[in-house]
Amino acid sequence: MQNAAMAALAVVKVCSQVYRNVAFCVYRTREAYFLGRNEFISVRLFSTHGVPNMSNSRKSSTLMYGLLGISMGALVGAGYSYHKKTETQSPAILNKNMGTTSAVLETPPDFQISRKVVVPADNTGLKLTLFQYTTCPFCCKVRAVLDYYGFSYNIIEVNPVLRQQIKWTEYKKVPIVLAHVDGVYQQMNDSSMIISALASYLHDRNQGLEEVVKFYPSISFTDDDGKLKNDILNRYFLMYQGNIPQDKTKDTILKERQWRKWADDVLVHMLSPNVYRTREEALQAFNWFSEVGEWEKHFSTWERYLVVYVGAYAMWIIGKRLKKRHNLKDNVRASLYDACNHWMKSMAKQGTEFMGGEMPDLSDLAVYGVLSSIEGCVTFQDLLQHTSIGKWYYSMKQNVQSHAGCSIMNG
Ligand SMILES: N[C@@H](CCC(=O)N[C@@H](CS)C(=O)NCC(=O)O)C(=O)O
């Protein structure tokens, strides 16, 4: 924006200068012409005062041309800046049709399964595989949903430094989920899309998962800095296909969507600056990640030390940048407490145990999932001490671990 304004200003200046010069030349030529022929015409043409005085006439006509020049310059400048603006905006959306739908694999990538979660109630036959970092908040969110509804799934722990386990895919983030449908493997990227697709599928299994996934295309576009981005714009929408569940209203659907988005856009950004607040806390956090992610089992010793020590130091530095980028308070804990108090107060206002009412909804699962990613960190202990979120959190944990939402598996 600043560049466009500077360019417009420069063009206005140049144009008005050129116009002044051109106007002056035209004036001189016309002056010479009319002086030779008919002074009256010359004066009438260039002076509105009708005083047959050459110096007045010259001044006013210069003024007029100056003004004309400035307005033309401004016009050209505005046109130029509009052109520059539209020039960078026009190729913003790069997809020709509907965006890119998630990939389908004939054979699954061959990696050692880190852990198997088996829930006998799962009758979907989807044989889900989750590629994850154990303590990534987005992966924790997906696990919270899978566990709550009672899906069986395999976990493949991805090495956060070498990331060999996701070399097979162009999408370079975790979580990724593969689902076995009709003899092939449907890939799903992005935690919120995975959750929306699976929840939509559970709501109405007549729409096959491969069909549901097609409702979440990835759109490619260039952002304001000209960087290529991919985004699933409707990732928080559930595909009810006009068949809204009985216990939902338009308002509760909207509220669930907004809080899910809040979990991703606000709450998640509180974590790193808090967890990596000091070097000691960063190291403590990484040691807990290593323990809970069983890095000793999955990675070689040198890989583990590399991740723990280099990771902790790097994140301590990055945490400070993230604090600024996301406008956290100087005391970063206060921002985290504020966010959690906001969540708790909204629930108290509703007078229900969960944001979803009597039972958790996807927003409860999202907020719980995000917070569970720091459960073993000093930050989480501080959070329990300084806010009243503990009761809701442990109630959520109990519901998730007992697969309290699994009744949906049977219709
Ligand atoms: N919008 C994505 C964000 C996923 C994400 O940023 N994941 C991080 C891990 S927490 C990641 O994989 N970053 C790339 C990397 O580690 O190289 C989602 O909701 O799944």
From TrEMBL:
Lipid metabolism keyword on record: yes
Q: Does the keyword Lipid metabolism apply?
A: yes
Q: Which Pfam family, any one, appears in the UniProt record?
A: Glutaredoxin
Q: Cite a GO CC annotation.
A: mitochondrion
Q: Which UniProt keywords apply?
A: Lipid metabolism
A GO biological process this protein is involved in?
A: prostaglandin biosynthetic process
Q: Which residues form the Glutaredoxin domain?
A: 129-178
What is an example of a GO molecular function annotated in this UniProt entry? prostaglandin-E synthase activity
Tell me the protein family, please: Belongs to the GST superfamily.
Q: What does this protein do?
A: Has a glutathione-disulfide oxidoreductase activity in the presence of NADPH and glutathione reductase. Reduces low molecular weight disulfides and proteins.
Q: What name does the UniProt record give this protein?
A: Prostaglandin E synthase 2
Lineage, top ranks: Eukaryota, Metazoa, Ecdysozoa, Arthropoda, Hexapoda
